[in-house]
Amino acid sequence: MDLDYELVEGVPTVEEYRHLRGSTGLGAKSVEASALGLPNTWFGVLVRREGEAVGMGRIIGDGGCFFQVVDICVLPGHQGRGLGKRVMAALSEAMEAGMPEGAYVSLIADGEARHLYEKFGFREVAPVSVGMARLFL
Fold first, then answer.
1. What strand order describes the sheet that includes 5-9?
2. Could you tell me if 72 and 88 are in contact, meaning their C-beta atoms sit under 8 angstroms apart?
3. What span, in angstroms and rounded, lies between the C-alpha atoms of 47 and 32?
4. 1 pLDDT higher than 70
5. For 42-91, how does the pLDDT look when each residue is reduced to its tens digit (9 = 90+)?
6. Which pLDDT score is estimated for 132?
7. Counting beta carbons within 10 angstroms of the beta carbon of residue 54, is it exposed (0 to 12), middle (13 to 18) or buried (19 or more)?
8. What are the backbone angles phi and psi of residue 60, rounded to the nearest 5°?
9. Share of the chain above pLDDT 90, in %
10. Which of 17, 103, 104, 121 could form a disulfide with 12 if both were Cys (CB 3.0 to 4.6 A apart)?
11. Is the dihedral of CA 53, 59, 60, 62 positive or negative?
12. Residue 100 in contact with residue 93, Cβ under 8 Å?
């Protein structure tokens, strides 16, 4: 990783979180939802450059049986430098070190991102399982 970038364990502030999601096409969450959700992070990492959060990734879950990789993103002006791969590597290391036996870790892969996730052992589960979602507006 470029020496100008620092990968740190942690969770973004509500403001950083909303900015990163909103600026990367993931969609900004409300202040209320962000404040409620962020403390439920099992493990998270941030990419910082000169103190500014420019990327992130989180693992959420119940702490024992089920987990989900979420919020993998890097601001557009910082993409193409391997930062997403570094975020996934850090998340993968945390999973290898701390996941309970039998834990099920899932994620939703948008577009070509599936190629990155495959490098870290994730596989498509269709047709056995199909991802589904419900959005509350």
1. 5-9, 41-49, 52-61, 66-74, 104-107
2. yes
3. 24
4. no
5. 999 999 999 999 999 999 999 999 999 999 999 999 999 999 999 999 99
6. 87
7. buried
8. -115, 165
9. 84
10. 17
11. negative
12. no
Map tokens 């990327």 to a residue.
55
pLDDT tens for 18-52 read 999 999 999 999 999 999 999 999 999 999 999 99
Residue length of the chain: 137
Domains (ranges, CATH) in the chain? 5-118 (3.40.630.30)
- The secondary structure of the chain as a DSSP string is --TTEEEEES---HHHHHHHHHHTTS-PPPHHHHHHHGGGEEEEEEEEETTEEEEEEEEEE-SSSEEEEEEEEE-GGGTTSSHHHHHHHHHHHHHHHHPPTT-EEEE---TTHHHHHHTTT----TTT---------
